[in-house]
Amino acid sequence: MINLMYIVLTAMLALNVAAEVLEAFRVVDSSLLQTLEAVDMQNKQIYSAFEQAYIENPTKVQEWKDKSDQLRNRSEEMINYVGALKDEVVAYSGEKPVDEDNPMYEEGYYHTKVDGTVVEVAKKDDMNGPSELLITQKRANDLKNAIIEYREFLSSLVNEDDSELRELIMNELKTSDPEKGSKGEGNYKTWESEHFEDKPLIAVMTLLSKIQIDVKNSEASVAKYLYAEIDEGSFKFNRLGARVIANSNVVLMGDEYKAEVFLAAEDTTQQPVIMINGNEVEVKDGKATYIGNTSQAGKFTWSGLIKYKTPGGIIKSYPFEQEYQVSEPTVTMSATKMNVFYKGLDNPFDVGGGAIPNEDLEVQMTNGRVTKRGDAYIVVPTDLDEMGRNTKVSVYATINGSRRLIGTTEWRVKRVPDPVAQINGQSGGDIRKETLQIQDGVLAVLEDFDFEFGYKVTQFTMETTSGGYTNRYPSNSNRFTAEQKNALRNVNINSIVYIGDIKALGDDGTTRDLDPISFKVK
């Protein structure tokens, strides 16, 4: 309502600075000063509430009281700054000491300075002095910057997600320039010129009083917000419950079982009473620690009670029960393909730590190296160890931050077995002549071997009999030569075809001599 009165009076000034208008501004200014005192009293009550809350619970209130103290000091500085500017404007336009004995004393316009001195305003309709001081000497610009700094300070005390309060502060302490009018509607004005240029002294004083009111109102809004944050920053709950957090529900025999016991959503400014297995235990930061027995394997149960004092002074109890499993250290190790490792191959290897997570296991070996692929391991032996005397695989586990050996096994290391030479899937015996003639060559086959490993024949010699003579036909690959093909076409029924001198190259780069094979032609 006061802001609306100021707008109406300002509009009237554009027509004529009449005595009645000046008197109306004096009335508005007086009303503003009374409102300023009323808001200040409300703010003092809020700060008094902060003091009382801090006495009752310093831990909870400390953060918000510190912020309220900063708010009170900065707001007082801002009010005094505007008040000092009022004093300066009055002095610049002219003032004189108050003559309290003058019977006309009550009819003048008086101003109480920041230091409490009362002076009579000599020229309340002066328009030149305020404009020169505030516009020409740019004191209004200094005022604008001070308002902006104060506004930013208030915003820093408010959470970013509280947009409504931030918007309220921006509107009450608005310093933006007025919008430009359309073409032909006059010159563009700044915030400073709009409020202080070519205005009579009494109007300027009223406007400065309004700025003080805006500061006080903004201070009140933020102070109430901070006081409400005392409860927002503490735990609010309508349901309490006992909570137990253990380092693990499954521990190895001999290791430590440890668990924290606390009341969920408890108020950190007061400690609950915690009983474990019938005994009161030490509580620190709202939590108690229980260390269980792990000297033998088995399942163990423990329980307790949390006692908590409500804001109404009533003691409530919250029981809890927890169990944990103690297991002996065990580990299972197995070669994925067979019960031995093969030299030169990537041997898949599985490790199981029981209750121990796979990521906490580490596998090492003598006579080779171990690498991890996903959740499995690959073992690559270095040397042959047919008796398994020099090849050991050890598994370590990280338990409660320490590295422990939980198992070691011995393994044999063998070489990949020799393949068997075959023709048409046969390693000898009877074969039809027409079947033999359509074969391309000799294959080296690993029978009943689960690894992806192959051999390729690199040479062989074929022998046939004709007229009592033995004929030899060599090949430097795994395929029949043209000469060998021709010999197969000419073999007699019931004659023998012998394949010898067979060599095969393995995927590991080694060459093997294979046993000869022979066929009776049918």
**Count, helices:** 10
Shape: elongated
Enumerate the spans where pLDDT stays under 50 for 5 or more consecutive residues: 4-9, 11-17
* Distance between the amino and carboxyl termini: 123 Å
Instruction: Determine the structural class based on helices, strands and strand pairing.
Output: alpha+beta
Q: Give the overall pLDDT as a whole number.
A: 81
What percent strand?
A: 25-35%
Domain Gliding motility-associated protein GldM N-terminal: 20-227
Signal peptide: 1-19
Protein name: Gliding motility-like protein
Pfam families: GldM_1st (PF12081), GldM_2nd (PF21601), GldM_3rd (PF21602), GldM_4th (PF12080)
SSE layout and pairing:
Blueprint: H1 2-13, H2 19-56, H3 58-93, E1 95-97, E2 110-112, E3 118-121, H4 128-136, H5 139-156, H6 163-172, H7 191-196, H8 201-232, E4 241-246, E5 250-252, E6 257-264, E7 273-276, E8 279-280, E9 287-292, E10 298-309, E11 315-327, E12 332-335, E13 341-342, E14 347-352, E15 361-365, E16 368-373, E17 376-381, E18 392-399, E19 402-410, E20 413-414, E21 420-422, E22 429-431, H9 433-437, E23 443-445, E24 455-466, E25 469-475, H10 482-490, E26 496-506, E27 511-514, E28 517-521
Parallel strand pairs: 5-11, 13-20, 22-28
Antiparallel strand pairs: 1-3, 2-3, 4-6, 6-9, 7-8, 7-10, 10-11, 12-14, 14-17, 15-18, 16-17, 18-19, 21-23, 24-25, 24-26, 26-27, 26-28
